[in-house]
């Protein structure tokens, strides 16, 4: 099996300090969490920027600040979000791609997202994919529902994505696909063997789906964006604590952890 790529999703757009007092918000806090997660074993950090008031922002300058701070601290792969918050416009969402990061997320369809709707029309997916192609940014294809895999395959057919594709199955979002083992297996079976995937289980689904991914040869995403708890009723102390647990479990199961450079090789990133 390939070495295990661990992504740390540090902040997200929805979680508040009220829900998780250790949530990193300011660029120096996000960079410091990225460094801790790198030391714990993460090779990718998935980043959402916040403004000084703690509100989600897609401002390119805030992303630039975060990117430069992380790059000065460690070689972890910087992966900005183009999902942003549900109320960001597509133009706002696309901004961090202009920094030419090695990777960025690309959501592959529209779904309910809690009480909101996360809008990703075909036209906007095509616009996001073609801009990433032009700038040499590898998309991580965010899949919240089964049909989104087919949307990605359609983008590939149109020449807007380059194979092998890399997916993130985000399972357990209220209003979208649940995070049962059967759901993950079903998703994985839709991909040819040379494509790669990671799983981001939401809330209570984070740990069981991560363990499944370790055993199935997939990769794992953990962090406060997806889950603020260490176990039922007990908040996690830090993003790095969640990463460190995955490293321990992977080691017990005989799966080695990828360094950032090994992750670059597995994902075919051009640094
Ligand atoms: N915050 C969600 C509405 C991504 O980062 O690409 C979308 C999201 C996906 O988090
Ligand atoms: Zn995100």
Instruction: Return the CATH topology.
Output: TIM Barrel
Oligomer: single chain
Please compute the radius of gyration using only Cα atoms.
17 Å
Quote the average pLDDT.
Answer: 98
The residue ranges in which pLDDT falls below 50 over 5 or more consecutive positions are none
Structural class: alpha/beta
Tell me, what is the CATH class?
A: Alpha Beta
Shape: globular
Pattern of helices and strands? EHEEEHEHEEEHEHEHEHEEEHH
Q: Share of helix among residues?
A: 25-40%
Hetero ligands: (5S)-5-amino-3-OXO-hexanoic acid, zinc ion
Number of domains: 1
The share of residues in extended strands comes to: 15-25%
Q: Count every helix, treating DSSP H or I runs of 4 or more residues as helices.
A: 9
Second CATH tier, the architecture: Alpha-Beta Barrel
- Looking at CATH, the homologous superfamily is Aldolase class I
Distance between the termini: 24 Å
Number of strands: 14
Question: Main sheet, how many strands, which sense, barrel?
Answer: 8 strands, parallel
Within the largest sheet, what's the order of strands? 5-2-1-12-11-10-9-6
Supply database-style keywords.
20% strand, binds zinc ion, 8-stranded parallel sheet, alpha/beta, binds (5S)-5-amino-3-OXO-hexanoic acid, two-stranded antiparallel ribbon, TIM Barrel, 9 helices, globular, 271 residues
């Amino acid at each position: 099996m390939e070495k295990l790529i661990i992504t740390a999703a540090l902040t997200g757009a929805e979680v508040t300090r009220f829900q998780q007092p250790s949530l990193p918000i300011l660029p120096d806090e996000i960079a410091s969490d990225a460094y801790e997660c790198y030391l714990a074993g993460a090779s990718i950090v998935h980043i959402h920027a916040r403004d000084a008031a703690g509100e989600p922002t897609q401002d390119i300058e805030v992303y630039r600040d975060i990117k430069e701070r992380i790059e000065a601290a460690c070689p972890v792969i910087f992966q900005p979000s183009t999902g942003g918050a549900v109320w960001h416009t597509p133009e706002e969402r696309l901004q961090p791609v202009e920094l030419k990061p090695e990777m960025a997320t690309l959501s592959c369809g529209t779904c309910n997202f809690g009480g909101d709707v996360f809008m990703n029309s075909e036209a906007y997916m095509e616009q996001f994919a073609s801009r990433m192609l032009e700038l040499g940014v590898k998309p991580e294809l965010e899949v919240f529902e089964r049909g989104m895999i087919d949307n990605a395959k359609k983008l590939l057919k149109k020449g807007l994505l380059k194979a092998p594709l890399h997916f993130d199955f985000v399972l357990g979002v209220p209003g979208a696909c649940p995070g049962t083992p059967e759901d993950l297996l079903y998703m994985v079976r839709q991909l040819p063997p040379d494509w790669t995937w990671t799983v981001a289980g939401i809330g209570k689904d984070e740990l069981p789906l991560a363990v499944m991914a370790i055993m199935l040869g997939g990769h794992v995403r953990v962090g406060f964006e997806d889950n603020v708890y260490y176990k039922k009723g007990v908040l996690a102390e830090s993003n790095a604590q969640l990463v460190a647990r995955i490293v321990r479990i992977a080691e017990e199961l005989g799966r080695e952890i990828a360094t950032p450079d090994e992750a670059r090789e597995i994902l075919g990133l051009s640094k």
